[in-house]
Amino acid sequence: MGDADGGHPMSGPAPTSFWRRYVFSTDHKVIAKQYLFTGVAMAFVGGLLAYVFRSQLAWPGEPVPGWGPVGLDEYNALVTLHGMIMVFWVAMPVLVAGFGNLLIPLMVGTDDMAFPRLNMLSFWIFFLSTLLVVASFFAPGGPPGTGWTLYPPLSTSGMPGAWGVDVLVLAVALEFAAFLMGGINFLTTAINKRARGMGMWDLPLFVWEEIIASIVFMLSVGPLIAGALMLLADRHFGTGFYDPRAGGDPLLFQHLFWFFGHPEVYVLLLPALGIVAEIFCAGARKTLFGYRTIVWATIVAGLLSFIVWAHHQFVAGIDPRLAAPFSLTTILISVPFSITIFALIATLWGGSIRFSLPLAWAVAMVAEFLLGGVTGIVNGSAAADIYVHDSYFVVAHFHYTLVPIALFAPLAGFYFWFPKMTGRMLDARLGLLHLVATVVFFNVTFLPQFALGMMGMHRRIANPAAFEFLREGMPLQELSTVGVIGLLVSQAPFVVNLVWSWLRGPVAGANPWRATTLDWQCPSPPPHGNFEREVVVRRGPYVYSPPGSAEDFVPQDAPDAERAGGGAVPSPLVQPAE
Amino acid sequence: MQAHATVARESTSVPTGRVGVWWFLASEIAIFGGAVACYVLFRARYPDWADQAARTLGWAGAFNTAVLLTSSLSAVLAHHAAVRGEAVRASHMLRWTAVGGLVFLAVKVYEYAHEISAGLVPAQSLFWSFYYLLTGLHALHVTAGIVALLAVAASARRGHALGRVELVALYWHFVDVVWIFLFPLLYLSS
Amino acid sequence: MPHHLPEVASTFAPAIDGHIALIYVVCGVWLAAAEIALFWALFRYRRGASPRAAWMPADGARQAAWVLVPAAAVLGFDLFIEWDSARVWAHVKERTPRGNVEVRMTARQFGFDFHYPGPDGRLGTTDDVASRELRVPAGRIVRLEMESADVVHAFYVPELRLKQDIVPGRRIAAWFEPTRPGRYTIACAELCGVAHSLMQAPLLVEPVEAWRRWATQTGAIR
């Protein structure tokens, strides 16, 4: 909290030394890039792990090219770390911290986060956690083969000497601490650093989604932090919080884990939907359909997310009478999210759509996420869950939600805001190749997994051929593995595009998409301090093609006199200056 | 039009530091809330934990409650002094608060020593696991609070950043309130 | 159903399959409708065909109804699915009937042990008969009492459509009534350690008479 008053790092001139500018920077834009690139690097690590264990699944026992034979303990560690890395070291840093850091200060029209030094500290704690999670694979006593859920007693008495488990738990704890600090920064910035004239109902949807995501994260992760302390105590201090012989209960950890684990999915989903909304409005030249309805629906979804967790445990040994209420809340949570998705589609309806790469990625996100969303009903129904629980149907389902959330949406955002970050445009042809290949191979990878799940394939087995009922599924296993390899190779055009465009891409200008929000009303890339003059907000975030105006967009801060056609912008998008 | 766009300006009437501390405390409440909720659920399951609770040093817990309440009072006085701009007095009061924290920790260490010598270690039973978890987590927060109090007191003495006096006092009240929950839950048997 | 489910070998499997099919149909229609709406909007309102966007903030009830009414319909279908789900769930999991055959199963790293009541007809006595495979008669209700010796395991037989975690410290009951004689695989569906992938045991469903011969020969039942 050291920046609360006095000594505000932004109030001075930009730092000149290399270390202060690019490494230990307090500038939210630099920190955003640090999170983004750490996340992208970890995405390749997580992807390569997937390549290794999927190769083992398709061709059991064969040495994996570039890796070698996969041992059983190694297999468990691979799937554990793949899950951990993709959720906590890819989705979180990219979606929540990366885009949040980049966009929140720009979108609320301020110079930086509320607490820039805390922001820098968050990143470096996160970075330390990144090193630790990689190190856990090589820890003495064996890598963490507990599954990303870390269920005791496997993670306690089941793996006593495996320091990998301790290193992994420590890494996760540090990661949580980093994102708690980040969340405090996001919330305080959105609440107290808004530009003059900007009320809460003038915030772009992305900022609202980050606010709600930060609160949901903050309130759900606390109990799991306590739970992780108990886990470490059970491992090292002889306590028995999760040991039935000592009066403890293994299910306690499952409750703590999923009380966090399920809301966490929404922590990731909300910023992704925010990114899609920004791109849809600018792409369709149309105001967001039902802005306040979406915000309220999201708040309701955030509240509901705290009372759905036990749907991960229908058949886990909890009282079967608990299943019906949790099944009901789980299925009900589809209502607020269907409102949001319908509103996004309605935003395109009646628009004047300019096709662009970010829009295409955002459409792909929604189109694929819909399949992930509806298959969630199968898992959420207690009766169907008796069969599909811990099956590849679940694996396919959450990849159809999380890949659109953590790959498609960030890439949409990346193609959209890359000009803002670097001042240059990404190449559209390479981007299109990237999109088409990614969509095709994504479906090749995960559609077969629905079928494998329905065939009965259960999770976390290294050798499906060892089970009679899975032998006829081997061609599907191979197809899915080919998909993963294709998905990894499909990212090559992106890397090439990134490097080439950053150096040589066409210069973008401040507002290449002719968008209304404040992030587009400052230079690209924004200078130290972001805005060249004080921002005064005069209207809501999405005034595209208002009636009576010749222009098809009116920036949030444009003075009325500068508008062609003059006249008031339709209410209630005009907020009286506060 | 201002030459520099960045004036310290707040969108609400609440100072930015206070908003940040509130959210920080919200996340802390979630951590303690989770741990306490686990304890309460187990305590409801095992009525015989009352006998274990009776083996804590009730007088020490009660004394520590009084110590923390008193130290919160001096934190309030520090805040009042800071608001009036009395830097030295604010610094003084923060140090008294820190002294209260140190006394609390000293008593706590005495308790732990007493209990460990009686064989009541974390692995003794689930009640004692929770006892050490909850009081240990709290003591960690007291320790961090003492460090923060002394740091703010040092800068306040030089007249710097008097706004932080309120923030550190807010945190200290939180530590106090947590103890007010823990004391009856852990020390009282009925 | 687009997927290939394993053959049906328990009395409640058709109910679960039917429930899954119901969700497939309901969700399939919604999915198709939403995808069509999305791509139709993209095509119909492309710049060339729609030079200027309409102004639809939907801040009033009339416009918002375009979203809220379908969402209310989603709610209706949700409740319908949930009603069906609760019905099937209660049948399979909430009411555990008395078994014609009672077996105690202990899961451990990395296998399943089965115990039959033995001559005295009671589980948990010294004359219990141990077995490495689960042999049960077709057309009779089997009741399992499950325990774990170490970590969390699960009892899972795809053809029965039955899955139940086994948590150390608890005795968890499950039941099924096999319909079709045959040899099936019991798999552990909860990650339980290094050799989780290999953890399986045979389930033998036999005609009643054949089973009774085996059971009396081995002394597994009275």
What is the secondary structure topology, with strand pairs?
The complex is a heterotrimer of chains A (578), B (190) and C (222).
Chain A: H1 18-23, H2 28-58, H3 72-107, H4 116-135, H5 163-192, H6 205-236, H7 250-284, H8 291-304, H9 323-332, H10 334-348, H11 357-380, H12 382-388, H13 392-422, H14 428-455, H15 474-489, H16 492-504
Helix pairs in contact in A: 2-3, 2-4, 2-15, 3-5, 3-6, 3-7, 3-13, 4-5, 5-6, 6-7, 6-8, 7-10, 7-11, 7-13, 8-10, 11-13, 11-14, 13-14, 14-15, 14-16
Chain B: H1 16-45, H2 49-53, H3 58-83, H4 87-117, H5 126-157, H6 163-187
Chain C: H1 13-44, H2 61-94, E1 101-108, E2 111-116, E3 129-131, E4 134-137, E5 142-148, E6 153-157, E7 162-166, E8 172-176, E9 182-187, E10 200-206, H3 208-218
Helix pairs in contact in C: 1-2
Would you write up a description of this structure?
The complex is a heterotrimer of chains A (578), B (190) and C (222). Chain A is an all-alpha fold and 578 residues long. Among the domains of chain A are: 355-422 and 426-505, no CATH class; 518-578, no CATH class. Chain A contains 16 helices and no strands. The longest helix of chain A is centred in the first third of the chain and has 36 residues, at 72-107. Chain A is globular and about 70 Å long. Mean pLDDT of chain A is 93; it is low at 1-9, 562-568 and 570-578. Chain B is mainly alpha-helical and 190 residues long. Chain B has helices spanning 16-45, 49-53, 58-83, 87-117, 126-157, 163-187. Chain B is elongated, with a radius of gyration of 19 Å. The relative contact order of chain B is 0.17. Residues 1-7 of chain B have low confidence and may be disordered. Chain C has 3 helices and 10 strands. Chains in contact: A-B, A-C. At the A-C interface, helix 3, helix 7, helix 8, helix 9 and helix 10 of A face helix 1, helix 2, strand 7 and strand 9 of C.
As a percent range, the share of strand residues of chain B is under 5%
Number of domains of chain C: 2
Question: Any idea what the radius of gyration of chain B is?
Answer: 19 Å
Could you give a short account of the major beta sheet of chain B? none
The helix/strand order of chain C is HHEEEEEEEEEEH
Task: Give the total of beta strands of chain B.
Answer: 0
CATH architecture of the largest domain in chain C: Sandwich
**How much of the polypeptide of chain C forms β-strand, as a percent range?**
25-35%
Number of helices of chain B: 6
SS class of chain C: alpha+beta
Radius of gyration of chain C, in angstroms, nearest whole number? 25 Å
Q: What does the overall shape of chain B look like?
A: elongated
CATH topology of the largest domain in chain C: Immunoglobulin-like
- Average pLDDT of chain C, to the nearest integer? 94
Strand count of chain C = 10
Instruction: Return the CATH architecture of chain B.
Output: Up-down Bundle
Gross morphology of chain C: elongated
Q: Note poorly predicted spans of chain B.
A: 1-7
